[in-house]
Design brief:
alpha+beta; 22% strand
Length: 174
Amino acid sequence: IGELCDALGELGARASSVAGYPPVTVHGGGLRGGTITLDAGRSSQYLSAILMVAPLADQDTQIHVPAITSRPFVDMTLDVMRDFGIQAGLYGDQTYRIPGRQEYRARAYAIEPDAASAGYFAAIAARRPGHLRQHTVAAPRPLRHPPQGVAAPPPGAVAGPRWSADQELSLIHI
């Protein structure tokens, strides 16, 4: 996690960890933007994290990525960002460009039927006031692995995704 804190620091945030490991502390104050190099050879998650916050920076952000472990997951991050009105993209093979001063546009969003991704949104809905509607749909393609388990929500919260033998899974709308 130290690499992520360092990258955030280069973009103007104040983020710290304990010897490069959690817990992480991020102080408010905004993100400046700028140009950084981020090695995503061990994990593409740090790149996705920077991509998601970069549109909120005061200036444009360029991220040079000499190595990446999972481009499909980063592509998925960019697709979802675009779905919420954000402009960002890969230019060439190794540079992501994200204009600053953007705003994510609120919208209804159907979460792909995948317990790993849907579970996060169920947890958010369980912790925040608002409305959660859950629909069970057939999976659009075979799911690789059935969920290993979804943590129980707090008392009174709506339960998260379900797995059944015919590969149906709950879609959650927030």
